[in-house]
Amino acid sequence: MPKHYIGFTKALRATLAHIHPGDQVTLPLADCEAHVTAEKLYAQVDSPSAHTSLKDGYALRAEDGARAHGAGAQPLPVTGSVAAGQVSGPPLQPGSALRILTGARLPEGADTVVAEEFVSRTNDHIILERLTEKGRNILQRGSDTAAGELLLDEGRRLTPGRVGLLAAGGIQAVTVFRKPAVVLVATGDEVLLPGQPMVSGKLYASNLLTLNGWCRRFGFSTGMEICGDSAAALRETFQRALATGDALITSGGAWTGDKDLVARVLAELGWQKIYHRVRLGPGKAVGFGLLDGKPVFILPGGPPSNLVAFLQLALPGLQRLAGIRNPGLPEMPAVLQAPVAGQRDWTQALFGTLRREGSVVVFQPDGRPVSRLKSMAAADALLLIPEGIDGFSAKQDVTIQLLNRDWS
User: Fold this and answer.
1) Contacts 24+ apart (CB under 8 A), 18-23
2) Is the pLDDT reported for residue 408 higher than 80?
3) Is the pLDDT of residue 288 over 60?
């Protein structure tokens, strides 16, 4: 293998070492989902703000409940009621009970709540069909969030559940890392945007739309351009892209053919090349560098090479730019349906489909597909065979990367 190729693991490390989280912005909490926190977030209030009932039922003292249960039960009088939202209510008198609704503040003097399905009520008296103990069906003050408690560290992605937790803790706005604006440029005189009339010998920019879809999945804003095989046109397009975007990704023209001009033009513009050509199959022509301090990824034009290079190197770089601590596709364990061969001096990526067999997820490698695009469209996952490994055997446990979130 020529010396100017580098290993995939080294390329990924170099990518993440040269990209750092971008600008920060403070957003209303309702607009923060899927962003990454740029600050530590502490609860401002206790939630709940008082001891509250988890059930519709009756608030009482456990010792009184013991006397109102079983043989010789002494009915407890119901002396009032408490509803959710009441700032204060009647205190509980010993030897009595108060009707209470879910979410209502626990009356002073009560230490347990009996769910209504375990109570028999006659007129204004109750007896218990089940014993209760102190603390039952009570949500303690501050049990969801306690004022001053660290709720989220910096560098954490805001999921709907985390947004809800922050809301309960009284947080109204969050400083997050701004999601990058990515400019995608497909190169080649033969490439057309969908919607343009088809001409013999040309093709529509499927790579460009695929990359755009992946960027949008992670919330990155995108711009798409097509540029012909002209050094002057490429130079102008790249300069314009980096004036408006946070990162540039090119598709096609990454190799050494007569019309593969991307790397040459970037060199003329003075980019800091970190690597170009990686021991990754498919995707070996991938390159990465910095121009005007902004990341630039050059991807090969073949659809499988284009997508694998993007998912394994460009996407983690963009995720790091967005502040994500552990970039990459989500992973899960699986069992191989069939044996697969690797290359000891090469990292191989295989597309495949998934199915469940009981509690086991089975990965079926695609083998040698007739159609590259149909194979990629049908794929649920990717399997990487690292350098130094000849392959995996059938029924072997492996780790796969999820492409299709809805495969099951």
Assistant:
1) 18/274, 18/288, 18/290, 18/295, 19/295, 19/317, 19/320, 19/321, 20/320, 20/321, 21/177, 21/320, 21/321, 21/322, 21/323, 22/177, 22/178, 22/180, 22/246, 22/321, 22/322, 22/323, 23/177, 23/178
2) no
3) yes
